[in-house]
Design goal:
binds S-adenosylmethionine; transferase; 19 helices; Rossmann fold; COMT-like; alpha/beta; about 475 residues; methyltransferase; O-methyltransferase C-terminal domain-containing protein; S-adenosyl-L-methionine; three-stranded antiparallel beta sheet
């Protein structure tokens, strides 16, 4: 029998014992899956089943809390005030192509990397040694010091342009081990800035100026995307979508980053489709409109997983033209694309379902309500409104693995003057549209942190609709 360790309440030992318990649970679950031991070099934790991921997240949360506790109040602050240095080294790695100058299969010296990138050896060494503290690159084990090899994260930066475009320096789920030969051949154009670290973070630092500039406007007048930090940087009246329209390279990086998230388990459209009972909707002649459906990625997945549902993808002229070109002939009879501004009244009537994926979090409450109100002419008794978004927890939330959502919320605030929402906030938005639009709750997407928030249009006197 194993000895039972006990420890004073609240002690480091007590916390460590909880961590030990989780570590042992995680190891046994992974062993049952025949997974190889994960390392910084090769991440074997991809596509874990939901229950193992839950244990993994608990393990991350507890170890993070232990680290914070051990750092102490001033230690936590010291880490935070220097956090910008992580972004700086990531930018340097990106801009000078340092990850590409380390071969995928053998070490390179600081000098070789310096020669290949046109930088002083000492600069390369200082940048990479800082990055190594985040397990981006490491020194070749068993060799004299100064020989750099890839870790999983640096290899990802070297080989996957979309991951680089997305480059969240602290994305705990960056994964790398499944490199196809095609991925290995990808090259990243030099000096392409990184979307989040550079394109968006450099806007976000102007948040305080934006707050001060517009804070005295009354209530809902301070609710426009033109009042975000974006307009401080790009000039009065500018929104980030306008900036993207006028800058092709930036727009391409932005789509790359979105693609990277969509490919990850969290944003996986297949998981979203698998988590919703489409059967009740999937009747002959039933119509679902994907509002702001882009080039139709979600519509294609829904069509593939249903039999009858007719899908209409509405978006601005650019994406719908592209979506129509990309549409495989096999789905030609099921999906149509039409240009429609979602602030204008819905031109189609008697629609069975409206679907909005990653739309409303880019808009303030006032504008989110406007977008939903514009759908009203298309409603009939029983019309469902399905909103695929993050749902922030309603209560206080200190789990580290939930920080991603808080990061996104700050990003929405700074760049779009918009927000992520809790379930209560979603309910308020829906109830502000029309008394006939009834909030029905939210349905978590299995294996993801997204949800589908659901509302149904109910005409008085008709049979109430359930979930
Ligand atoms: C964050 S993307 C989400 C795209 C898609 N739903 C998805 O899940 O990938 C927002 C979409 O809203 C579209 N959009 C922005 N303003 C719009 C407007 N006024 N009318 C219609 N679509 C708009 C954009 O073109 C873009 O495709």
């Amino acid at each position: 029998m194993k000895p039972t360790l006990t420890a004073p309440v609240g002690s480091f030992t007590e916390l460590a014992l909880e961590i030990l318990q989780l570590a042992s649970e995680l190891d046994s679950k992974l062993a049952r899956q025949n997974r190889k031991q994960t390392t910084f070099e090769f991440d074997t934790l991809q596509d874990l089943p939901t229950d193992i991921n839950a244990t993994r997240k608990e393990f991350i949360n507890k170890t993070h809390a232990a680290k914070q506790l051990a750092l102490g109040a001033s230690g936590i602050l010291r880490e935070l005030v220097f956090q910008f240095t992580d972004d700086i080294t990531l930018r340097a790695i990106h801009d000078f192509g340092l990850a590409q100058h380390v071969p995928l299969d053998r070490p390179a010296t600081f000098q070789e990397i310096g020669q290949a990138s046109g930088l002083d050896t000492s600069i390369v060494e200082r940048i990479l040694r800082h990055a190594m503290t985040n397990h981006i690159f490491s020194e070749a084990p068993g060799m004299p010091s100064g020989r750099v090899v890839h870790t999983g994260t640096s290899r990802l930066l070297a080989t996957n342009p979309d991951a680089l475009a997305a480059a969240f320096p602290k994305d705990i789920f960056l994964t790398t081990s499944r490199l196809s030969s095609e991925q290995k051949q990808w090259t990243i154009p030099a000096n392409e800035p990184i979307v989040l670290v550079k394109d968006l973070a450099s806007i976000s630092i102007h948040l305080n100026e934006a707050i001060l500039r517009w804070r005295d406007l009354p209530g809902d007048e301070r609710d426009e995307p033109t009042q975000a930090a974006t307009a401080i940087v790009y000039g009065p009246g500018q929104t980030y979508f306008e900036v993207l329209k006028n800058d092709e390279a930036r727009a391409a990086r932005f789509s790359g980053a979105m693609r990277h998230f969509a490919e990850g388990a969290d944003g996986d459209v297949e998981r979203m489709v698998a988590s919703y009972p489409w059967d009740a909707l999937d009747t002959e002649k039933a119509v679902l409109i994907d509002i702001g459906g882009g080039t139709g990625g979600a519509a294609r997945a829904i069509a593939t997983n249903t039999q009858h549902l007719q899908l209409v993808v509405q978006d601005l002229p650019g994406p719908v033209t592209k979506g129509a070109e990309l549409l495989p002939p096999t789905l030609g009879s099921r999906i149509v694309f039409e240009a429609h501004d979602f602030f204008e009244a819905q031109p189609r009537q008697g629609v069975d379902a409206f679907f909005l994926r990653y739309i409303l979090h880019n808009w303030s409450d006032k504008n989110a309500v406007r977008i939903l109100k514009a759908l009203v002419p298309g409603m009939k008794h029983g019309t469902r409104v399905l909103i695929n978004e993050y749902v922030l927890p309603d209560g206080p939330e200190t789990r580290y693995t939930q920080k991603f959502h808080r990061n996104l919320d700050i990003l929405m605030l700074t760049v779009w003057n918009a927000k992520e929402r809790t379930e209560t906030m979603w309910k308020e938005i829906i109830e502000a549209v029309d008394p006939k639009l009834r909030f029905k709750g939210s349905r978590p997407i299995e294996g993801s942190t997204f949800s589908i928030v659901e509302a149904v249009w109910e005409e008085p006197g008709a049979t109430p609709m359930g979930k």
